[in-house]
Batch of 3 targets.
Target 1
Amino acid sequence: MESGKSNLYSEFNMDILASRHVECGDWWRAENLSSPFTRIYMVTDGVGYLSYGKTSIEMTAGNAYIIPAGLAVSYYCEKKILKTYFHVSILLQNGYDLLDGIDKCFVFREENMILQITKRLNSNEIKDIIYIKTALYSLICRCIEGNVNYTVDSYSKLTSKAIKYIEANLSSTLVTKDVADALCVSSEQLRKIFCKDTGISIGKYINNRLMSKAELEIRLGKLSIKEISDKLGFCDQFYFSRYFSKKYGVSPMKYRKNINSF
């Protein structure tokens, strides 16, 4: 193995943000819900319905449904549905989730896998934890084959420093000039190199990270919407709500409610 290549295997880690086996009734519903993480639903009993764009899917036992990050979906249940669900995220170097940008859901028939995962879900034994993570990685891998063309690239020192500065000073008031001034380079130079390295503009990167931070704070539920708005430097809660709704399709309050409905 070439020197340094082994470091590639430490670049990406799957964060399991939530996991649970639940029984949902007719209260389980949401419209045009978009999340910065990927949702995995493994149905064990009952029936649910999932839709996006012009596509409708009946969710039945024995199937695993993968909803990519960023895809706006609606879902509901008429009577009941039992499912093991996971919220997972694999962030790329540019701040996007690995599956972000894929415009379709995936359905895999995995009766035995679902049975095994559900059985092991609450176990604290290492073998069970490894089994579950391996299965989830396998599902994600099947989703990106033929749909994602991404390689691991090394960023320039300037881009790496810019990302660190953005993460340490994330705010709605942060602009490219602030980052450029802090790194003692021109805004034009920073824009050019950052976009070349990451494939997106530095302004879009800042916005993506800001909204990801907002979503995390809303999902954690420790702060009020106003406190989150203040923490992220928005002029007022109402502007923050409009800004958030433009990204995720629903207000922060409704998003928090939908998150809690799995």
Note: The longest strand covers residues 38-52.
Target 2
Amino acid sequence: MAFGTFNDGGSQQPMSEINVTPLVDVMLVLLIIFIITAPLLTHGIKIDLPRASSSAAPEKPETITLSLDAEGRPYWNGKAVGDAELPAMMSAASKQQPQPELHLRADQVTRYQRLAEIMSMARKAGIARMGFVTDPTSVEQAR
């Protein structure tokens, strides 16, 4: 859009009004295009989709709770186990399909060294999923 004057002979002052005719032309063309294409966007095409049977949802893996008391003694799902039995139990659990999740529960005075040993033992046995179980209410009560 060029700015110019209506008088040919006189001043070189720019025109103060904007020529809106080209803008209106473009808007009308766009409006016509949208009116034509809008019904095509909402129109569905009938197709015959193939049918397939879906597989069963994978079953949720069981959870194994490994608890440690204040002295660091392990309890496998509530039953006391010795340190010698623990690697074999973890190895057997890691071979199950789907592999169970190991939930570690430890007394708050249990040494971190003991927790690190148990976690290392679980990794060596092949357990991939491990988590810590905490008691959120004990923190609020301590305040």
Note: The chain has a mean pLDDT of 84.
Target 3
Amino acid sequence: MYGLCDCNNFFASCERVFRPDLEGRPVVVLSNNDGCIVARSNEAKALGIGMGQPYFQVKRLLEQHQVAVFSSNYTLYGDLSRRVMATLRGEVPEIEIYSIDEAFFDLEGMSEPLDELGRNIRQRIRRNTGIPVSIGIAPTKTLAKIAAKLAKQYPKLNGCCYMHRAEDIHKVLSRFPLRDVWGIGRRYGKLFDQMHILTAQQFIELPESWVQGRMGVTGVRTWRELQGIPSLPIDNLTDSKQQISHSRSFPHEIYTLSELEPIVAEFTTRCAEKLRGQGSRCRTISCFLLTNRHREDQPQHAEALQHNFEEAIDSTLQLVKVARALLRRLYREGFGYKKAGVVLGGFEAAQNQQQSLFGATQDERHTRLMGVMDRLNRHYGHGLVKTAAEGQKPFQMNREHISHRYTTEWSELLTVKAK
């Protein structure tokens, strides 16, 4: 059996941990620069507030219903996520962290009744972290995903859905929307809508050869998993990310290249620091620019470019140089850009790197320099040593509703007054 631990409305729940007065009150969390809604409590969902809805469109509705509004506080969310995962890791043989608010776990060798185990895990996580979670347990990871959704939907399950009997699985899949199955996505969802294949049960009744021809190996794995055949084992060996990105929406549209260049340079520096922090080097770097799609009165432009290195590198200096070159090719005069980002990919372990026959792409002096930069910035604070391309003034986000970093910053610890 496999399990999935899914934190309920995670960002909103994090804000409630140190604000018990918010229990029962609608809560929303905004994206970077307070642009869009990225998390909603159940009470906020009941008001009809949509995921991804621009803040300015619903601001009056939020005020009318006294909704608590927060800017994204990723420092707090990341720390609480680590605490959730630490508790889960202590309860089961092994886990696979899937995202900041989800983790799969293996139940091989567990003797106690699994539904009781799931409820106990849920209670311990709530006690240790204050975060409510839903637990799904089933014969495969894909079915565990579905079980976790059911645990959220039906309060009588008490936060844990143990889905193991064949007749129960068949009953669930006969009603479960195929579009909501992990691994189907929008692309295949449209295809199956056109074919009037709307439920997960209808999907697994298709011939394997048809699934293989249309969806490839990935589709066949999903097809088998829904039939209770494990095809996606727990992967607890890939702690390092396989892609690192840094992107932000801007407080206002930016029209000039001179304003965009230091921002993209700073984003690239952040990515490079994370890359070296996990002991990796990258073979690709991508840069993208987006205008404000909500401004129908302005011309629109959205484009991305990628550069491939002959040999994997981790030098901030080289990565910033290439990112700026990509930006200059992307930039179009007369457009107001609302978002930019940098993505690194094609990772290799730095210590196992095989050099090119035509000489090293990265100057070894850069390797030593990056080591010195990272040590200084870790010891004295981020941004002490940086590239000239980043400019003097770091990129600032709109965060008018930011909460305290209660668990990681001494000056922002919770204050309790005794009467």
Note: The radius of gyration is 24 Å.
